[in-house]
From TrEMBL:
Residues 38-187 form the Cytochrome c assembly protein domain. The keyword Transmembrane applies. Keywords: Cell inner membrane, Cell membrane, Cytochrome c-type biogenesis, Membrane, Transmembrane, Transmembrane helix, Transport. GO terms for molecular function: heme binding; heme transmembrane transporter activity. This is Heme exporter protein C. Its main location: membrane. GO terms for cellular component: plasma membrane. InterPro entries: Cyt_c_assembly, Cyt_c_biogenesis_CcmC, Cyt_c_biogenesis_CcsA/CcmC. The keyword Glycosyltransferase does not apply. The chain crosses the membrane at residues 27-47, 67-87, 94-116, 136-152, 164-184, 204-225. It comes from Stenotrophomonas maltophilia (Pseudomonas maltophilia). Belongs to the CcmC/CycZ/HelC family.
Amino acid sequence: MHPIVRWFHQLGSPPTFDRFATRWSRIFYVAAVPVLLLGMWQGLFVVPAEQTQNDAFRIIYIHVPSAWMSLFVFALMAFYAVIALVWRIKICEILAMACAPMGAGFTLITLLTGSIWGKGTWGGWWDWDPRLTSELILLFLYLGVIGLYHAIDDRRSAARAAGLLAIVGVGLLPVIRYSVDWFGGLHQRQSINVFGTNAVRPELIAPLWWMVVATKLWFVGSLLAKARADNLAREAGKAWVGERFGDTAPATSEELPR
């Protein structure tokens, strides 16, 4: 077996994943802080005001990274769900379900910041624009995954059912991405591209990329931390949990750190 394949196989073991997540969640959190501060400092104090929106445009440094993450996290959740359903890997079930609350948070931030931005540019807090409406449906999908997961007592059955909903919901992602091109509406067309020409002035872009990197670093750290906590909760009572925390007897869920 190739060493990389063997490493991924070993990572599916709850004790191995616990060690991995403990170490790397801290690393990603520490890495996220300076990048986040740099992006916020440049976005708030360094870049000049935009020609038409003045300082109101600065909300872009929160809105756009959150919007991108709302789609990315859902796709990642569905990816883990597919692996969990096909290969029955418990850690992937845990990772998929750990994605849901964070993805819902990013989606909520996207909707709130978009509403604030829209009030200044469109003159209203909300419009049933295709992009806004599809993003709202995405939030409902996230909440549906979370609700379904907690509605079933057996954790593995719950993760599979909620994961199936996530897989079905992936079909919404291209609708959100291309809704402006397909259906029009008030929302502006794509003006920022990872590859290709940007409609936004170059000096306004740098803080955005820092914020994009920061949100991804923070997300990975949070995902590992949340998955580790869920993994420990599922494994409560197992010998390795007791040994990990220095107990001679298997740990119970009340003894686990929160």
